[in-house]
Amino acid sequence: MKILEITQNKKTYLPLLLLADEQESMIDKYLPRGTMYALDDDGVKAVCVVTDEGEGVLEIKNLAVLPSCQRRGYGRRMVEFIRQKYSGVYKILQVGTGDSPLTVPFYEACGFKRSHVVKDFFTQNYDHPIFEARVQLMDMVYFRLVI
User: Whole-prediction pTM value?
Assistant: First the structure.
């Protein structure tokens, strides 16, 4: 297993990126300025895009694992890679996600703590309702981890 930085043709991974952020126009807002990584284990199993948000904050904008490879530790391995790579460079690793029973427990299990909420983020920024585990996502919930 290896994790590689993707510097060119990031949109090649669009089908995987869309698993974590289902509107391409939203991905287009952060992909050009983000640093992208792909986890390869006999083929790409996961991708992650991080951005510098200033003031010592690095944000995970997109973390996606192929559905057939979920619950095998790939997502957790990607978070750990990012944490280790940027430890000492950034103070905080943060992630914003919907208040979903699928993603919230994952980030909490990775050591993230709830930070703040942006009300109505999904309803105001997406052109269609977003559902995860049959729950409509309304607010963006931010989690932070001290690195």
Answer: 0.94
